[in-house]
Amino acid sequence: MDPQKTGFDYSTFNPSYFQHLEQRIKDLDALGIQADLILFHPYDSWGFARMGQAMDKHYIQYIVARLASYKNIWWSLANEYDLMAQLGQKPLSAWDFIGKTVHQEDPSGHLLSIHNFYDPPVHKGTTKNWFDYTKPWITHLSIQSDNVFFVPKWLDDFQKPIIFDECRYEGNIEFGWGDNSAKGMVDSFYRIVLRGGYATHGETYIDKPNTTRPIWWAHGGILRGESQKRITYLKQLLATNGFNYVNPMAVQGPHWELAVGESPDKQHVFAYIGDNQPEFEIFDFLPKDNIYSAQVIDTWNMTSTKLNERIDKNHYFHIPRKPYQAILLTKIN
């Protein structure tokens, strides 16, 4: 794109802008937060999505040189990269060059990925619009999807971490991606994490149409929803029970309604039942001869109740009929 038509000189950088960005990255680091920096996006009104390969390279070299020394930086090549092709901003063929350039210019080897567009009527049953995540310089999958059942399969297919950067947001706006309930948001987290993936929280509450009040998803500020408290509770449960990561279980057989993961030391199994309400369960996917004690986790009320039964793979056990429960097992033999 001709810089004359946008009012920007793509060859000259504004140091004060990037100094401000650096300070925000430092602020995030002080809070223990990783900064997944989006380099390009389709919602562009200034021409930066249409600069062309030479200026793209110039921009990438500058921003990587400035920011690669920050330990909390990740690189996200684009938000909804494939939508940029539909809008005529960048061809799909451009991303291999962009990704390789970021990777080659970064001496610190930060995490690097790219994020897809997701329209459920079009993309619900396919991953054809995903970038080729088998590229050696891609460190993890950064996906937008609500297909939370497929995490174990994708882990097996790609042998890389699976991050749901968008699994819908808790909020009240008019779009399906931003009007999920708090319970729906928490449900997605349990189903993704206990199948071995990772999930990103987002919140899109407004007080009125065309609001001028900051929306947390875009501007930060005040969290007004209820899901983040329950997500923190899940994180605490995982941390105190040795789940540095999750090995998915029960991925075959008649257990599609469960999300089940085992701790790396094999001492704990965490099974999420969700909005299903069985009164009797049998965990026939458990390792042979293992015996476990159990806690019933109320994921919404954030409580834990000891179950006075011993659990193994051969016997049914009784649980209260209630939605949004999980069973946390601890090996005792």
TrEMBL record:
Pfam families: Apiosidase (PF13204), DUF5605 (PF18310). GO terms for molecular function: hydrolase activity. It comes from the Bacteria. InterPro entries: Apiosidase-like_cat_dom, DUF5605, GH. Residues 256-329 form the DUF5605 domain. Residues 9-198 form the Apiosidase-like catalytic domain. Keywords: Hydrolase. This is Glycoside hydrolase. It comes from Lactiplantibacillus xiangfangensis. The lineage of its organism: Bacteria, Bacillati, Bacillota, Bacilli, Lactobacillales.
